Amino acid sequence: MRKCALILAPHPDDESITGLLPLRLQEECGFRIWVVPITWGSRLDRQAARKHEMKAACNKLDFHLRKLEAPMGSKGCVQELADRFEQLSPTVVLMPHLKDGHSTHRETHRLGVAAMDCFEHRRFHVLETEYWHPLARPNLMVSADETQLRRLCGALACHVGEIERNNYAARLPAWMIDNVRRGTELIGGAGTATPAIEYATLYRTRRRENRGWISEFQQGRLIDSSEELGLLVSCWEV
Question: What's the pTM?
Answer without folding.
Answer: 0.96
